[in-house]
Amino acid sequence: xxxxxxxxxxxxxxxxxxxxxxxxxxxxxxxxxxxxxxxxxxxxxxxxxxxxxxxxxxxxxxxxxxxxxxxxxxxxxxxxxxxxxxxxxxxxxxxxxxxxxxxxxxxxxxxxxxxxxxxxxxxxxxxxxxxxxxxxxxxxxxxxxxxxxxxxxxxxxxxxxxxxxxxxxxxxxxxxxxxxxxxxxxxxxxxxxxxxxxxxxxxxxxxxxxxxxxxxxxxxxxxxxxxxxxxxxxxxxxxxxxxxxxxxxxxxxxxxxxx
Length: 259
Hints:
Layout: E1 4-8, H1 12-24, E2 28-32, H2 35-44, E3 49-53, H3 61-71, E4 76-81, H4 86-94, E5 99-102, H5 107-139, E6 148-152, E7 155-159, E8 165-167, E9 172-175, E10 178-181, H6 184-195, E11 201-202, H7 203-211, H8 220-235, E12 245-248, E13 252-255
Helix pairs in contact: 2-3, 6-7, 6-8, 7-8
């Protein structure tokens, strides 16, 4: 089955042209004329890939990309940019975009980038399945010292002996009267760290498990750093919370809560 693609561009002619190029190749295509329309579409249907214009009135492409990473983290993104927006395109790559295309691009350039992106997404999905199978096999052997999990009313709650409680279903962390709420991406990152308590995880491994795509060892720290920073700021609400996630220089991070 051909992939489902979302085309986002406020310029009607460019949007229709892109959609037609992709439809002729057999892809299923939906188009959106604004950033908000794109987010609405992502919340209603699953898309394998999104072609996203950077320069749009109101919500620009970078803001759409940030919000899309929470609504549809598995959707791969290709940026459409004019020469004057190169800095924005490079920043988007650092945040996890698959590629960028200079407008106007030839049909061959567009189809080549889309094909490469979909291949990458397929490989990442296959690796994720293998990791899930490995996780299932290791689950009975895993004994994270000092950490217990107890489901309550369908909720996934993690309790630490130092009084910290984590509700992974409601995306909340609290102790006593202190409580913080996590975004879906922050919550996913925290869940992965908790499940691997005490183990050093590489930047690339964390990006793959949290964001769902594989990138190079050079790119991974740049993608991960702002997310780790936001999570640390929230955990700093609690005593010694800013020390729970430790940077292992040149390698990655380890989660080691004081018990």
